[in-house]
Design goal:
This protein is an alpha/beta fold and 221 residues long. It contains 11 helices and 6 strands.
Length: 221
Amino acid sequence: MSSKFPDEWRKLYEEILNCRKCRLHANRKNPVPGEGSFNADILIIGEAPGRREDEEGRPFVGAAGKLLTELLNSIGLSRERDVYITNVVKCRPPGNRDPKDDEVQACTPYLLRQIAMLKPKIIITLGNHAGKRVFSLAGLSWDSVMRRRGKAYEGVIEGIKLTMIPTLHPASALYNPRLRSVLERDFKLIGKYVDTLIKGISKEAERKTPKRGSLLDFIKG
């Protein structure tokens, strides 16, 4: 096992690797626990792994992942150093269908543990399912991502006070290029909150050793 994984994260990855809590385990190649810095102040939550993610055991590695990386870079954030990325469910739904409610419920304890371990200052939700789940955990109402995007919301999850910023899933801009400008505007908003909530107090955080871990790193370690 890789020494780059803190013990609490190693235990979580092992549990996800061996998880059989819902039907999604039956057809997966690899579960996708998450990836990024274990010291990150920013947690990005998507919906579910896709085909490429299922093959590699890493989140957002396809075209949508490339766009996400570009959007992060546009506001001065490094995917490896500044954020941790995961999904509401850790296994790919067959045919990339939407995750079902019972699948989301089965996977939610893993997400809650990730939030509790990271203690992020900002959560960015990508798409309708991620926004709905995170808002529910914070006790906030949700209608749709298009109605909720473009604003920041305060909430508490696992005793941690958070700023939550919902936006579209990057894949939506691949299907409809006109939505890219919406994503870009939302990430400019995210950048303002990063400057206010994190960069103003991040001199010490910048000296932390970056830690990056994917499921494949964990297995090979």
